[in-house]
Protein 1
Amino acid sequence: MKKTHQLISSLSALALAAGAFLLFPPLAWSDNDDQALIAKANALFKPLPASSALENTELTPLRVALGKSLFYETRVSADGRLGCVTCHNPAYHGADSLALTVGVHGKQLPRNAHTVFNTSLLIAQHYGGNRATVEEQAYKAVLSPLAYGNTSNEQVETKLTQLGYLPLFKAAYPQDAKPVSVENWSKAIGAFERTLLTPAPFDKFLKGDAQALSRNAKLGLDKFINTGCAGCHNGVTVGGQSYQKFGITQDYWLVTGSTPKEAFKGYDKGRFHDTKDEADAFMFKVPQLRNVAATPPYFHDGSVATLPQAVRVMAQLQLGKQLSDEDVSHIVSFLESLTGDIPADFAQVPRLPVAPH
Ligand code: HEC
Ligand code: HEC
């Protein structure tokens, strides 16, 4: 009798405890936690602005439309087959799906293509930061022996004129005595790129909508900050605002499996190849993490296939930490909240000029 009594009371204690567990789970996330996390996040990150137009440079519809056509235009490249869109494709969130991109005449380039979304907000362009603005990037790309393979400005301008672009350049840049120029090619493409901003659920969260992120994404954001990721990946683009050494705790290739590249006469040393300064060896522009979940594979050479693996590699190489599977999965949920919609206009293929006969 006594025993049964004991059993019943311990069972009811158990039931009570279970009830309490349901009511107050150990990791309960409260409204206060939401407010604290929103404040913490706002100290490190910023929502995307409505526009990234340059001062004194209007993003007129005619310039943006011309820039979009030029972005999709493949006939200006040396083999007639390659445009910005080849490597920065709407199907892959403004990147391509390759580890290393393939340039003009089918030649493999030594780096992975970034997404082209939100890049006008970065400190500079490319892993080495050797192009200051999206305009300078577009200018140099069309003359790069690896990308477009053109050898002079005149060559590019003649091709554009022969393809029937003169009226479009004239309309977009009516003040210019010589509207068809590589200068205006770069300005128009830059204008188009400046419209390619991708607000995401994370922006809503930063602006105070606590429901915009799932519980796992919130736990992941908290982990991302507390682990130290936000020490490098911060600001409006969650990265892209500084240069940092890749491989702080050990040589990166021991963990990523990267291979030496002919173009770099060995392992890619990042910014060093642009500045030739030993202090820049293995310094890379910290990539933005907006849309990162939609743009595998990862790192400057696409050496890591999946996002969970990229997160583990980062924790180990940059912070000397091993993350649990649960932490990795929460951080990945947070990173997924940085995926924005593809700008509607970007995905719609433009009608390009037909070369006059
Ligand atoms: C052959 C493929 C290819 C073509 C064509 C190409 N890109 Fe890229 N793009 C890349 C690669 C690879 C990188 C990374 C280069 C690096 O970091 O050294 C890149 C980087 C960029 C970046 C820098 C983004 C960042 O986060 O730093 C921008 C912007 C960009 N490209 C825009 C363009 C535009 C505009 C065009 C057309 C004028 C273009 N690209 C043509 C492959 C390509
Ligand atoms: C000390 C600075 C630093 C810290 C801390 C850091 N990162 Fe990075 N991160 C970088 C740099 C630099 C790269 C570019 C490496 C490369 O490709 O050469 C990078 C690349 C990445 C990439 C790949 C992006 C892409 O498009 O290929 C992801 C994902 C990433 N970091 C996530 C994280 C996470 C998650 C943490 C925390 C666990 C973290 N990072 C901590 C500097 C840092």
Protein 2
Amino acid sequence: MRKLFLGALAMALVGCASAQPLAVDLSPSAERGLQLSQQSGCASCHGSDFGGGTGPTWQGIIGQSVAFKGGGSGVVDREYLIESIKYPDMKKRVGYSVVMPYNNLTDEQISDIVDYIEALSN
Ligand code: HEC
């Protein structure tokens, strides 16, 4: 439901042309996170509106439960997101054949990106 709603909202806001980041209110750190995500190539896999593609969607992801290859599962929270960005190959999700590449983001930059991802679940 929530994903459908966000999708419809995004379409309404940006018209029908190319997908754009969702127009949500962003704190200064989340705004930096959005820019970092666009500059660091994250959008190429997570979608130009971060609605997913080769990689999972970031929209409404907080609180979702995810299953890992080799067993186990988890609930997406801030800690999980930070860990996933820092160590992309540590927990691999069921359903994705591509492994996310490592990046050289600093802890502060990762925190900004996670602020942005959290804003997409508000
Ligand atoms: C080559 C494609 C690719 C790129 C580029 C990429 N990712 Fe990913 N990402 C994935 C895939 C695939 C997964 C899920 C698969 C897995 O966990 O093994 C994932 C998972 C994640 C997750 C965990 C979400 C979840 O549902 O488990 C986060 C957070 C994330 N990526 C952030 C980023 C950030 C930030 C960047 C940019 C610095 C980035 N990704 C760049 C493909 C990519």
